[in-house]
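Q: I'm writing a short explainer about ABC transporter substrate-binding protein for a general audience and would like to include a description of its predicted shape. Could you first generate the structure from this sequence?
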Amino acid sequence: MTKPTHSTTNGLSRREVLAYGIGGLIATASMSLPTSALAQQANTLRIGLNARDIGVLHPHVATGGNDVPVIASIFSGLVRYEPTRVNITAIQPDLAESWEMSDDFAVHTFHLRKGVQWHKGYGEVTSADVAYSLANVRDSEQSTFRPLYSNMGEIETPDDYTVVIHLNEPDPTFVTAMANWQGGFVICRKAVEEMGDLYRTEPVGSGPFQFERYTPQDNISLTAHKDYYAGAPALERVVYSYVPDETSRRFAFVQQELDIIQGASNEDWLTEVVNSTPGNPKVDLLGPARSVNLHMKATVEPLGNPLVRQAIAHAINRDDFEQFFGPVFKGTNSSIPPSYFGGLKTADIPDELKYGFDPEKSKALLAEAGFPDGFEISTVCSERGDYLALAQIVQERLSKVGIALKLDILDHGSWVAAIIKEKRGSLVWSISSRYPSAEYLMREFFLCDARVSQPSGVQGFAEYCNPDFDVAYQAAIASGDPDVRLEEFAKAQMIALKDLPVVPLGTMSTPVLRQGYVNLGYEIAEGDDVTSLPYLYQLSPATSV
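A: Of course. Here's the predicted structure. Afterward I'll give you a sentence or two in plain language.
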């Protein structure tokens, strides 16, 4: 089979989509813009999100790229990363002004900054809030991140400004779990108890911006938190508009009706937008690298057969994705990006575990598994452009070896609910950015407790469980020796590659565009690698337009 030169989306070739988008859709694009994108207001930053609507803004529940940028502006962690760097050397004080750990890495103590205020008059942030927040992310059935915090044992609060966390197993890098991301965000106990479910959409935090209002399927508006501990923000307001259509986002950005947008994962699209926009717009390919994987649910036949999973892996050509997405995509042979601490390089992986493109081998494996004529299988897929492109490219390749894949395409929010809450999806594509160390993706996708069918499971879509993998993982995180951690992480990845619950496809960066007049409040030098966990720029009190 030859490589496709015109991958298709919704029946149009890539070139046709681009040509139509550039030349033909501009006239109609404004009709689908949110009303908030049409007028500039003083000291207001307008951001266009690649999403149809809000999901949930409770930081311990939300996972969607439509929600986490908003959450990151509302909440604080005990510690935080520098705006352009995400690694353990870039950790700075946030709600905690200092911290230390015991010699055996099992007890971590944080000393809170005094006088930090919650939004909307909910008072001072105290150790009781932190303890409540940590217990919630560890224990609540609603918490998406329970597996990541299950190592926490007793949480002590000897006074209003001290939090002592006892771990079940030693972890010298535990401080990264307390950073401004996901379960590390601290929620307000009083507000949660007073507001109940309303807290999920109108949260109260202690970050630089506070919730103002939400207009369904249009926008969410935040205003400056004047009592923010690091100083009142320069911006009066931040408006996040929901603009799922790439042509509409492009149109609004070119017309300077949006100041920052999430871009399309497409080199031609990014180049055209930059060339069409007045001023001096910038495009940044943000890291950490998003890990792109295809999860194969072992409880759905015939995916429980390892020969079938290997056949699927050999039917997929990673070059297809690089050709379609351009430089934002890089094919890899491990589910942990090579740029992460503990991620395997291609050269470290034996040839037989790389599962290279080989359709004839795929057919032979299917025959050996008892499916000489292939089989039919169905799954759900997000309508979002990057997910849909991945699915359709795989769909085309699988058809060449006799596997007929039927896609039930859902809006992104419904798809997230389908795969996490409803446990649907025989084949699940994930595009995941995490703190760049192997343990995070391992915990969420590969540990036995991560299986979606388990009470503690959330994103183990493949229903994978191998105790040997868990042992290697635990040995890695318990060690303070970087070499031992690398060795055990590598051992765990080799186990997973042999079992093959997940086909590693590659990594993607996150393209984001900003107008030349946007001052982020920090410098990004030309050519700098920028890492930012919320799929968008970190906003600071100094951010201005």
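A: For your explainer, you could say: Residues 1-31 have pLDDT under 50 and may be disordered.
Q: Perfect, that's easy to follow.
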